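Tokens in:
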């Protein structure tokens, strides 16, 4: 303490009397030991006094922040799980649908959707479903929708009610056999439908999944084009048509998923996009 006071006084004197810098500095008075501890005591006393005043003021002005009152720490906010189903109202949802499989490319496509935690719908042909029940099981287990693309891929609008019924029944039977569960969706081949198909699907309690975005991927076997067609054509509520039997279409899947997400859209299953479809109704998109 004494050394500090001595140094401080030296500095003060040197600053105040620069002209006298070379002159003999006045003798710094030696502070008695008792005097130093008195100053320290006074300082401590004033600090304690000031602290008491601040605490008193604080407890009156902010009673909830009174220092003695223990406020329980708020429970840490639980972070919501990241959603990949378009959120509660699915406002930004899009359904990507793949027809004519399952086939040799389908497993690779499922891997891609799994890696990106996205979902799609697979409109299967009965003979292919019978051939690859394990793929249908995987689709179901991973949250995709399975739809009925009939037995023999005929134009349903050229058939009788009975024939349409048989086509639908065969598809449903194949799906049920593989997964233990039926489907709510029929996709008429070529999108060919009419009043007879409306009636037959209504009677069987299934809805018609058509589309508003056709990527024409069966003709345009170019992944970049397929991706552009899907991403540029899609808007919230769209149903996008593709085919999982073409390697180029499967190659485009990452680009499609990423591209839709970059537009603020989320690829979901048809069952997610349309939770309560009306039997017999033709759905080209949601809304
Ligand atoms: Zn087809």
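Residues out:
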């Amino acid at each position: 303490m004494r050394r500090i006071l001595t140094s401080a006084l030296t500095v003060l004197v040197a600053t105040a009397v620069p002209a006298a810098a070379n002159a003999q500095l006045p003798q710094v008075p030696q502070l008695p030991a008792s005097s130093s501890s008195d100053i320290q005591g006074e300082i401590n006393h004033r600090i304690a006094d000031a602290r008491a005043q601040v605490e008193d003021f604080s407890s009156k002005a902010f009673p909830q922040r009174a220092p003695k009152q223990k406020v329980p720490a708020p429970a840490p906010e639980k972070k919501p799980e990241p959603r990949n189903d378009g959120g509660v109202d699915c406002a930004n949802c899009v359904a990507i649908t793949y027809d004519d499989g399952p086939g040799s490319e389908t497993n690779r496509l499922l891997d891609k959707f799994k890696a990106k935690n996205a979902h799609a719908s697979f409109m299967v042909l009965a003979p292919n479903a019978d051939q690859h029940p394990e793929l249908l099981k995987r689709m179901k287990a991973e949250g995709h929708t399975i739809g009925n693309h009939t037995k023999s891929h005929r134009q349903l609008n050229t058939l009788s009610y009975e024939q349409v019924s048989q086509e639908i029944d065969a598809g449903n039977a194949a799906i049920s056999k593989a997964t233990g569960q039926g489907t709510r969706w029929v996709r008429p081949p070529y999108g060919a439908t009419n009043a007879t198909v409306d009636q037959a699907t209504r009677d069987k309690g299934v809805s018609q999944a058509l589309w508003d975005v056709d990527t024409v991927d069966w003709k345009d076997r170019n992944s970049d084009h397929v991706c552009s067609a899907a991403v540029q054509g899609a808007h919230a509520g769209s149903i996008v048509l593709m085919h999982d039997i073409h390697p180029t279409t499967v190659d485009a899947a990452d680009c499609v998923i990423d591209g839709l997400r970059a537009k603020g859209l989320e690829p979901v299953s048809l069952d997610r996009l349309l939770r309560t479809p009306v039997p017999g109704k033709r759905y080209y998109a949601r809304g």
